[in-house]
Write a structure and sequence with these properties.
Chain lengths: 330, 330
């Protein structure tokens, strides 16, 4: 049994070849939900969705989000209508008193759907509508995720990290904003001062998460701050990781992050924005897998391989190296 | 100045030729909102939408709802996902305590979006998302309607009948259900016992409605029970109509309704399900326009013409006849 901690790109890429080392039937993936938002009444869980679409064989592998070949008619029409009506585009948070009305889970990250600043595909949207309606029917987020995972025919188990609201809020020189505003609407341009996972100290890990962390844990090459960070702040998670065998795959080639704003965000939380910063970010890690050209040094077992993942063969190579690392420290 | 009372099909058809007799700039249309529902978090206002799409020149004129040439990718995907996840299809009301959380306006008619029992097009959906998000931002339904009417470039003024919740509930031999369940999901098959406009006695007419009823009023060939009926039960509306010149166009060719379940519904409210029943349904009417082959007799001025509307020329003919009727009684 193995448990991966995952954000929305790096770890899913690794999962593409994970079966070379780990049986999918014995694999659990705990997904970040700090990036989740509600927009236009839809509860969107981007990292969970990437795993669902990947597992269902429909993921858009150019972007690593959304459904391959999806159309975007509603999204385009939303922009057209807003422009024709003279309504603003860009992220528009609902008022503070509206943040949680009817949905506590939306807290701190509930946006108007006018002009819809995230690009949501038409089939993609059906997933969000189903999830949101299941929440309205009384399902928890993890129960709704299980139903969606069934619908997409997943072999692995996917658990959202929590059924409670946790919001990744980025404090920048242009003010505080939700991660999705920072990354999608503002393309990571504001200077990050600090990152806050609002709600995390009061949030419980979703059912099954702590149990899953008793197995060997693999932290994939995801953003240590905003993809993995929210999980680490949940009560009980750091303790569980301290007890387990944990192997972390670097999301950096030296100073360069594979994808996303990992570098800037690492600096903002006072971690070295490079592979070496992983020692700070993951104090509980028992071993690291880093790139063959990376000269980072750790006080823990470290295996080097070509960690760039551009294909499932690449992913299989990295997965086998992770298995090697587990064997060393187990 | 003239004010039309409208449902979703008959009166919009008449409006297609209304400019032959009435200047669009001097025309107000009060639209039924008793058919409105919230489904999957979207506030859908079908009769208002038909008027918006008609005014914007994008209405699907085969169905008289939805947008011409629209795709239905999200709607189809919702059915696929529900089937794959083993979730039920058909209308699923949210629980009583969830009916109004975050949106009082949804009361008595808030449905899960799982499998989405109404056929919502992809561009159509963008209108509902925009409307719903404007409601979430604090707009009233009539303010949101005005913004959407601007977006669609309407020349006429469209007013929803009320900014408060009014739900057309049909009591049948198979239990009570919202009109949309009765008509869309069950195709009008249950036997109607009575019709209730829940909320109407506490609902205020939307701003501008009572003023608009001080002008000459035309009741188009809409369903007297579920299209026009909800408006008539709003406080002040019947009084206002008693004071004004009102001409009603029959929605019947003898015993046959042009469209929709008017016949069955008229019987259920103890009105004769034919043109003659209009005298009961519209006691304040000053004149009627009925079909040339209709032998109904009224105690009020009645003009006969070919009232079947299959084209804008037909609509223009009926509109000119309405003008004639107004001239007689004014």
């Amino acid at each position: 049994m193995v448990t991966f901690l995952s954000g929305g790109t790096g770890t899913p890429k690794l999962l593409d070849g994970a079966a070379a080392a780990f049986s999918p039937e014995e694999t659990t993936v705990v997904a970040n939900t700090g990036d989740d938002i509600e927009i236009g009444g839809l509860f969107v869980s981007p990292d969970v969705d990437t795993l669902l679409f990947q597992g269902g064989g429909v993921l858009d592998r150019e972007t690593w989000w959304g459904i391959d070949g999806d159309t975007h008619r509603t999204n385009a029409a939303l922009s057209d209508i807003a422009a024709a009506a003279g309504l603003p585009d860009g992220p528009q948070y609902l008022s503070e008193e509206r943040q949680t009305e009817g949905r506590d889970l939306a807290d701190w990250r509930r946006f108007s759907g006018v002009a819809e600043f995230m690009t949501i595909g038409d089939r993609d949207r059906a997933v969000h509508i189903t999830r949101t309606s299941l929440l309205d029917e009384g399902y928890t987020l993890s129960e709704a995720t299980t139903r969606l995972a069934d619908a997409f025919g997943l072999t692995i188990d996917v658990l959202p990290m929590s059924d409670d609201p946790v919001a990744s809020l980025v404090h920048t020189d242009e003010g505080m904003m939700h991660f999705q505003e920072y990354w999608v609407a503002r393309r990571g341009e504001p200077t990050v001062e600090t990152v806050e996972f609002r709600g995390s100290s009061k949030a419980d890990p979703a059912p099954g998460v702590i149990d899953a962390l008793e197995d060997t844990v693999v932290i994939g090459p995801s953003n240590p701050v905003t993809s993995i960070g929210p999980m680490l702040t949940l009560p009980g998670v750091a303790d569980a990781l301290n007890q387990s065998t944990v192997v972390a795959v670097s999301p950096f080639l030296g100073d360069d992050a594979f994808s996303g704003p990992a570098g800037d965000l690492m600096s903002a939380v006072n971690a070295d924005p490079s592979t070496e910063g992983l020692a700070t970010a993951y104090p509980f890690a028992d071993a690291f897998v880093i790139d063959e050209d990376d000269d980072a040094e750790f006080d823990r077992p470290t295996i080097q391989t070509d960690i760039r993942i551009d294909s499932s063969d690449d992913a299989a190579r990295v997965a086998r190296t992770v298995e090697e690392a587990i064997d060393i420290v187990d």
